[in-house]
Specification:
The chain is mainly alpha-helical. The protein is 74% helix and 4% strand.
Length: 313
């Protein structure tokens, strides 16, 4: 027999025989049983309350689910979410790159941006941009010795929809900047240093090395931000943008069917959030393929080592 490996644990024959005679009893988890019973009871009571209370007016809810006004509001909500999220990602990426820039001026500017737009409530920003004409009555571009190239009244282009896009894009970009910056910081700095030593410029290092690896750290919180943004678009009701919530409000203001219309709004928000969550799951699985392959290679390597050790014994 060869020499024993220093990390091996030897079990004496008598001890092994005694262990084999032990009776293994399953652990009784009374707390889990009680918690499960309480959860089922609460779920039953909630379902019975929803089904038996006539104030919910479920036939009215069904009749309004596909109402043209509700569908139009839902389309505007989805459009707002998509446009604002795209702009927030673009602006947030620029701000995040500025925050990790070697220039102290760029870092200070990006830090002030994040500090301001994350600190001021989104509703206040929304109302401010909607009332921008109180500060700036017109926007014009004048070049000395040439004249005014164009001039437009602020009220002509600062419509409720455009005000919502500008306000929520700038607000959401502050959060996206921090998410992307954290993703960039998660990439080991040695890779960027090695690329810089090979002569790669900073822009190419970000494009080819840092940002692609940061994606799998950035994507999960970005999906959460997109879901939060979908719900945050309901704030545009305060400036009369015809979104999903505003459409429901305009209906129950006439019919006084408040609860059924709120249930319709909640249903469509839950449906869209569920679809977005499924898409987020598949995107995370796509960008996490490298981890899966690395884990599979590691397991194959460990199995091979274990089999070789068994043969050597």
């Amino acid at each position: 027999m060869g020499a024993a490996h220093p990390n091996e644990i030897r079990i004496e024959p008598g001890v092994a025989e005694a262990v084999s005679r032990l009776t293994v009893m399953p652990q009784r988890r009374y707390g889990i049983w009680v918690g499960t019973a309480l959860a089922l009871l609460v779920a039953f009571l909630i379902i019975r309350a929803f089904a038996s209370n006539p104030a919910f007016a479920w036939p009215t809810v069904v009749s309004y689910l596909l109402h043209p006004s509700v569908m139009r509001g839902l389309g505007n909500t989805l459009m707002l979410t998509a446009v604002i999220m795209i702009l927030a990602i673009v602006v947030g990426t620029v701000i995040a790159i500025m925050r990790v820039s070697p220039s102290p001026v760029l870092r200070a500017f990006a830090g002030l941006y994040v500090w301001f737009f994350r600190g001021v409530p989104a509703l206040i920003q929304l109302i401010f941009w909607f009332n921008l004409s109180l500060l700036v009555r017109e926007v014009s571009l004048t070049i000395p010795f040439v004249g005014t190239l164009f001039s437009v009244r602020t009220n002509d282009f600062m419509t409720p929809f455009f005000s919502a896009v500008v306000a929520l894009s700038l607000c959401e970009a502050g959060y996206m900047a921090e998410i992307i910056r954290a993703g960039i910081k998660s990439v080991p700095s040695g890779q960027a240093e090695a690329a810089s030593a090979l002569g790669m410029p900073y822009r190419m290092i970000l494009k080819r090395i840092t940002l692609p690896q940061a994606m799998r750290f950035v994507l999960p919180p970005t999906g959460n931000e997109a879901i939060n943004l979908l719900k945050m678009t309901s704030l545009v009701t305060f400036i009369a943008v015809d979104d999903l919530f505003y459409s429901a409000q305009s209906i129950y203001a006439r019919t006084f069917e408040t609860i059924p219309l709120l249930i319709v709004v909640a249903f469509w928000y839950l449906a869209v959030v569920s679809i977005m969550s499924v898409g987020q799951h598949f995107l995370e699985r796509h960008f996490g393929r490298s981890d899966t392959r690395r884990d599979a290679v590691t397991m194959r390597f460990l199995r091979k080592i274990i089999s070789l050790r068994g043969i050597s014994r």
